[in-house]
Amino acid sequence: MPSLCSSIVLFLHRFLEENLCCRLSNQMNLEAAVEAAVEFLNKAAKPVMIGGPKLRVAKAGSAFVELADACGYAIAVMPSAKGLVPENHPRFVGTYWGGVSAACCAEIVESADAYLFVGPIFNDHSSVGYSLLLKKEKAIVVQPNRVVLADGPAFGCVLMEDFLRALAKRVTSNTMAHDNYRRTLAPAGEVLESQPDEPLKVNVLFKHIQNMLSSHTAVIAETGVSWFNCQKLKLPEGCGYEFQMQYGSIGWSVGATLGYAQAANDKRIIACIGDGGFQMTAQDVSTMLRCEQRSIIFLINNGGEIHDGRYNGIKNWNYTALIDAIHNLWNFIQVQSEKELKEAIVVATNEKNDCLCFIDVIVHKDDDTNKELLDWSSRVCAANSRLPNPQ
Ligand SMILES: Cc1ncc(C[n+]2csc(CCOP(=O)(O)OP(=O)(O)O)c2C)c(N)n1
Ligand SMILES: *[C@@H]1O[C@H](CO)[C@@H](O)[C@H](O)[C@H]1NC(C)=O
Ligand SMILES: [Mg+2]
């Protein structure tokens, strides 16, 4: 069977190229890739550049910034790469995820005549149910070991970092896409002050979390309401950010908070965790206490799960009692209003309380939807519930 044979050969070739032979760039391929990319990009009227999650494995973050500085393009980040692209860059336009993007970001990316995707992973989640309005012929895709231009050619054995740095030296600066963005952008909606005793709203909570962020903090976002709200946080320089987009597996964040704090004890973690996700892996809190970690956990307690999904509603725990059972010396605060929330944040960030703080944030059961969550869910659901392709 020649076709099976040739696919095996192709697979092996790709595998070897990705895994073995590519510790150094092949200089000829590198030069050819840069030459082709320069030609492609320099003839575009309003090119843009988007950072993807493979920037991490390729260790190409600073090369990305070097190119971002040199090219003048509008700079966006894929949701799964949040934290890998500096959001304080003067031409940063926000998270690109199709219909649920930051204001004006999708319009700028999708209307560009050339887009440079650096390390993207396009799956059902990051592509919002395969609804991105992108055209292959307008794209350059840079992966850790290869560069693909539009429908071809592809250049193998080219390391992302080398490619980005070489391109930075050759590309012509073009700020057209960002100039358009500035003209189009409407002022962001302000969150109104709550009335005294008004139940706490999720967007009010995140307004206060925003103010806690600095280069000494890292955000960990659980799947659910937190995913969408954390995605809209504006990260100051050096602020860490982690979430699990590939599978969106709930419960991930509790263990991630434990691991991150152990590895990076120069940063205080601000973990935003839904009650459903927390109940899957709550026991990791015990190890956090044993290791004397000092994370701040916001439990977003809406007494259950995201809208329209009552299929797995949950039992509301007595979190005070849970915490008592594990340990009785750490800070546990329950808040139901903006005033109480503000007081809790003062306590949690007080130098004297440099220990684990658990803030049980009671929000209304139905205050769990926002525009992005609704829009994203319906698109991903439509794509994932389609009939299988006929064999
Ligand atoms: C392991 C796993 N099981 C099920 C799901 C489907 N799912 C996505 S969000 C969610 C509800 C999460 O509830 P909660 O943590 O309270 O989130 P929130 O109310 O903050 O949205 C579920 C069950 C999933 N993503 N991962
Ligand atoms: C929750 O547990 C605490 C501590 O054990 C207890 O004092 C409190 O009464 C409990 N709350 C409810 C609503 O049962
Ligand atoms: Mg919940």
UniProtKB/TrEMBL annotation:
It is an enzyme of class 4 (lyase). The keyword Lyase applies. Keywords: Decarboxylase, Lyase, Magnesium, Metal-binding, Thiamine pyrophosphate. Residues 34-147 form the Thiamine pyrophosphate enzyme central domain. InterPro entries: DHS-like_NAD/FAD-binding_dom, PDC/IPDC-like, THDP-binding, Thiamin_PyroP_enz_cen_dom, TPP_enzyme_TPP-bd, TPP_PDC_IPDC. Its cofactor is a metal cation; thiamine diphosphate. GO terms for biological process: aromatic amino acid family catabolic process to alcohol via Ehrlich pathway. It catalyses: a 2-oxocarboxylate + H(+) = an aldehyde + CO2. GO terms for cellular component: cytosol. It comes from the Eukaryota. One of its GO terms (molecular function) is thiamine pyrophosphate binding. Its EC number is 4.1.1.1. Residues 245-359 form the Thiamine pyrophosphate enzyme TPP-binding domain. Pfam families: TPP_enzyme_C, TPP_enzyme_M. Belongs to the TPP enzyme family. Homotetramer. This is pyruvate decarboxylase. It comes from Zingiber officinale. The lineage of its organism: Eukaryota, Viridiplantae, Streptophyta, Embryophyta, Tracheophyta.
